[in-house]
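Board notes (copied after class):
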Amino acid sequence: MMRYPRPIRSLSIYHLAASALAMGATLAAAGPAQAAEPAGADAANDLGAITVTARKRSEDILKVPVTVTALTAAALEQRGIVSITDLASSTPGVNVNNNSSGHADRSFQQIVLRGFTPSTTLATTTSMFIDGVPVSSPSQVTSVSDPAQVDVVKGPQSAYYGRNTFAGAINVTTKEPKGEWAGSMTGMVGTRANYRLQGTVEGPIIGDMLTFRVTGERFSKNGSWRNAYDGSTLGDQKTTTGTALIVFKPSPKLTMKLFGMMSEDRDGAPAQTRLYGYDIKTASGALVAANQSNCTLNGNSRGVQGFGSTVSNAYICGTVPGLINPISANTVNTDAIKQFLALTSNRVIPTSDSVDGYGLLRKSQHAHTAVNYKISSDLTADFLAGYNREVWSTLIDLDGFDSSGFPSTTNPKGYYDFPYLVERRNMDWSMEGRLAYNHGPLRAVAGVSYLKADTWSGGGGGTGALTASLLVPGGKSENRTTGMFFGLTYDVLPNLSASIEGRYQIDTLGAYARSGGQTIASSAFIPAGTYAGNALLVQQTYKNFTPRAIVNWQINPRTMVYASWAKGVNPAQFNTTILAQSASVQAAALAAGGQLTIAPEKITNYEIGMKGKALDGRLRYTAAAYYAQWRNQINAITIVAADPTTSTGFTFINTSANSGSVDLYGVELDTNWKVSDLLSIEASGAMNGSDIKYFRSTTISQLTGIYDFSGKEMKYTSKYSANVGVILGGDLKNVADGKWFTRLDWNFKSGMWSNEANIAKTPDAHKFNLRAGVSKGRVAVDVFVNNLLNDKTYNSLTDNYVLDPSFAHSAYFSALLVGLPDLRTFGLQVKVKM
């Protein structure tokens, strides 16, 4: 077993606190120490106020005692942020993992905030919202055309936002129409058939009382990578989105909003490939793909300590190398593929919503309403209701290489191939009502919320004839969540406030039988018998209280410091795979400690921060340090159950369990400096560390032989990240109402581990984006170069397998699946305001 020196992790929360406050104090010291604020100087150098709603009420970003990164509409446009990956790339402390189960595409996008990597593919630690209403997936967040603002709220937000805000929340605020006719048209063209068309129209229906805003957008691009199999491009994407917003203001006290959105993603085969631990050769010995192994790991055949035998596994260790093999995938849509995708049996989505070839098809609908009523000058009432429906399917080439050199008599293509279909259907609706009170030194919020979410997953594939028998539709998974929350803030002194917040949450989870019915052989976990299609198999209710306490001190008008303590809860899961085992195995699994229901994950978070202005208002900054204890972490494990029917006498059942414990810590800094009327610098950075205390994973132990993961770091996250934007701009000489700007951004992410054993990691990523533009009146023209230096660093990395026709190396991890980035892209954009 290979050993690597463990990094020094002697940092404590006190060291982190000192570091963050030292940075903030340095910035604060740049301004005068007196309490009086030179309003004239600040007004002349004003960077513009930013309002956020991190605590369900509007607050100045420099006054709210929560770590928030806010991107206004102007910032999003100037940076060219149009997707969730763009948002993550430009926001330190945020990663997006799009790599799971043999595919790296937009069907799967996990947000990793502050290093809180979701422990399973179905888990979520960061939730997303539109106008405070929860949405199903990250794609819906960035489908909102021309939003007013995007807020990334860091740290547990359970008190206000509820379930799945374990690490934080991302909220998109839509633009509200005014009582005058306005609109815009934006057109973008770029290399590799890049284009984007976007239009917005808003205006009055009945004066200022009833207004509307509609948007439409079409985006398309060809992928950056060429498929050696047939010369096609990999990574093609196309998105079509439409939104509509109606605002009704019958009186100054009442505002009602109704928002709707429809979106469709239609992508080609993903830009991905593998780094192999073993050669792939044809029967004649011809080399199809060369291995890039640089180490041999002493793994274990079972991955369970005390069982199995030592096995030697060739692998890729350390910082992974570049590609030496052609990028290829069998992606021709033959008649057999089309017929397979047209099957109606054993599907969880209708064929009208299904992909019709290799790639992704996703259709999503979102609607919400928001009502605000001012009962009095001190008291307001709000009501929110939302609905989401999302269906997607993706057909992938699971083997992931040009396998046309392996003849096959059973595959319709005439050679070995492994097409695999993955599909999912998500539906949910939610409601929330709350009252807000603001009088004198007291601010208060109280409310109730309800969420019902249903999910169906299915799919299948194979190397031979493609029939309906290969498809396995899963039963429905259901979540019903009821929450009651409150928040109290009291000004103890004119410059000292204390807040107490909390949410009492009731989660009811249910698992249902497959649509074709299901037979349970044992009563070890649930009563044995045959269950009708869609019948309830198991249901469990969990009750939790998640409090947060905050103290913030306004040292002077320019400087605020705060400290907070918070609890968070992530929903539980079920091990329904146990129910498919034989009666004897179920009984043995129960005796071995197997559980059908798993307890929720929990977190305790400590945070301090400093916010303010310096340099006569020309510098705005926020600094924070945090320490979090993640307990009851849910991970995949194997239960060893006695089974006399097998040659070994045991059956190994892959399940999930509360088998992890990790401490996370970090320091974050965000600054905006107006150096002069000509030059501005935006700089932010984060160190997001993790220290695994306890962890179990059968598959990783099979590969590495490692059972003690203490001191290791979390996977799929960058420990260090930064963004620096340098902006030059001003008025065009001798041009009335003319302006110009140039912006250069450096986005940095340190390497990410592929697993918790910390064996393989990606190189550091350095991506530069350059943008310049001129405007006159209503017309603006921008030119841009994204990924200026053509950085090819993988954007995701996960353990996978060599899937050649022999399947000789599929028992243990034998390859790394990597997601490939967009390469250098030139473009021109024109925007006309009406």
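Comment from the instructor: Residues 1-41 have pLDDT under 50 and may be disordered. The chain has one domain: 13-833.
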